[in-house]
What we know:
Helix content is 31%, strand content 27%. It contains seven helices and ten strands. The strands form two sheets. The chain has a six-stranded mixed β-sheet with strand order 6-7-8-3-9-10, with helices on both faces. Strands 2-1-4-5 form a four-stranded antiparallel β-sheet, with helices on one face. A hairpin with a 2-residue loop joins β9 (205-210) and β10 (213-218). α4 crosses α5 and α5 packs parallel to α6. It is globular and about 50 Å long.
Amino acid sequence: MIQLRSVTKKYKNKYALKSVDLDILSGEFVFIVGKSGAGKSTLIKMLYKEETPSSGTVIIGGINIANLPPEKVPNLRRCMGIVFQDYKLLQNQTVYDNVAYVIRTLGISSKEVHARVTGALKVVGLIDKMKARPSELSGGEQQRVSIARAIVNGPPLLIADEPTGNLDPKNSLEVMQILDQINQRGITVIVSTHDQNMVNYFRKRVITLDNGEIIRDVQDGTYE
C-alpha cells in the first residue's frame, strides 16, 4: 500500500528525514516512535501531502504523491482518515455535524449521510452524544469524535499523529483500543506516538526513528 524510497527532507541546513526506505502493507498496524525531533511528524505529514520530500518518492496505492499537484491533494485525503493530537473539531457544531462535515460535500443523500455518521459513532461508542457540542465532551470523547470523522467515509488508510498526546492513561487506552478494532476491520492504521505504555501494551509493528533515519523496525515490538 505504502512505499517510501530514498525519502529525504531538508530544512535549510537541517535534515528532518535522511534517505528513508519503508514499506507498509495493506491491513498493517504500525507505530512510528522516536524522540522529539526524530522525524516522526515529518514522515506522517508526507503521507497526507502536508509535507513534500526534498528528494525521493512517496507511493500510496501505486501513485507517487510526492509529485501530486495541489489540486489533487483533496482527492488523496478523501481516501484516508487523519486523526490529530488536538482533535480539530468545529466547536460551534454538534458531534453529528462534525462527523458528517466531510461526506456532506460528496453529493450523497441525507439518508446515506445519516447511516454513515451513526455507523461511525457506534464504532467509537458515542451514538448517545451525537447532539452534544465538543465543549460538552471530555478530551477522550473529543478524540473519539475525530476518529469517527476519520472513518466515516470508509477509508482504507487511517493516520493518527500523536492521538493520545493530550489524554490520560484511561482515555489513551480506550482510543488505542478503538484504533485496534478499526484495524481488525482491514483498515491500515499508522500511529505516530510518544506513548511508551500503549506501544508496549499492543505489541504491533514498531518503527523507530532517530535523527531522521529508521534505526529499528520490529514486528510485535515494544517501544525500545
